[in-house]
Design goal:
single chain; 206 residues; alpha+beta; Glutathione S-transferase Yfyf (Class Pi), Chain A, domain 2; 2 domains; 9 helices; 4 strands; 9% strand; globular; binds glutathione
């Protein structure tokens, strides 16, 4: 049985959403951040960084949400959730996945760190409006890349859309940022309407 370790309202939603899209059964172990469960030796043995999500399958342990969603997709190749390795489609999938994790997400993570993650004395509130601006610029790049296609690679949803969709939800719902480009706003609604996303959110919150 696959097991996902996560925290409430965190990037573990990505792993759960991926497993729901793939239709694979899994256990979800929600750690209690306030009690510091992600810093305990048994969890640090799985991920020395103390971060979630972590996926465990027997003696196989995988961290990093981008790697997890891609690995999950590769377990169910017939669903086309990740293009085949070595194809141009796969290169574009990698491009958008890396874009999500390094361009779109980073301003949100920096803003979160300077709002509640870091100890108060290390926070620099002045970076928060800069982060909002940087997120807006990345969202414009997303709008251009998306064009009038329903999903990043065309007609088919992939795990790159999933990571972007989770990141857009983080921006709008947790940081109150607007999605100014109508194409990006419509794309986000399309992703958030997927039943697998609702199931993942419910599982994470339960
Ligand atoms: N690059 C990692 C980031 C993981 C990460 O920062 N997770 C946060 C929750 S969203 C976490 O575990 N924070 C706990 C901590 O930093 O102590 C990924 O995408 O999986």
């Amino acid at each position: 049985m696959l097991t996902v370790y996560g925290l409430k309202r965190s990037r573990s939603t990505r792993a759960l959403w991926a497993l729901e899209e793939a239709g694979l059964p899994y256990d979800f172990r929600r750690l209690d951040a306030r009690a510091g469960e992600h810093r305990q030796p048994d969890f640090l043995a799985l991920n020395p960084g103390g971060k979630v999500p972590v996926l465990v399958d027997g003696d196989f342990v995988l961290s990093e949400s981008g790697a997890i969603v891609t690995w999950v997709a590769e377990q169910v190749p017939a669903l086309g959730l990740v293009p085949a390795a070595g194809t141009r489609a796969r290169a574009l999938y990698d491009q958008w996945l890396h874009f999500a994790l390094t361009e779109l997400e980073q301003p949100l993570w920096v803003a979160a760190k300077h709002t509640f993650v870091l100890p108060e004395k290390l926070r620099v509130p002045a970076v928060i409006p800069v982060c909002a601006k940087e997120f807006g610029r990345a969202a414009q790049v997303l709008a251009q890349g998306l064009g009038d296609r329903p999903f990043l690679l065309g007609d088919a949803f992939t795990m790159a859309d999933l990571v972007v969709g989770h990141t857009l939800a983080w921006a709008v719902r947790q940081q109150g940022l607007p999605l100014d480009a109508p194409a990006v706003a419509a794309y986000a609604e399309r992703l958030w309407a997927r039943p697998a996303f609702a199931r993942a959110e419910a599982r994470e919150a339960a």
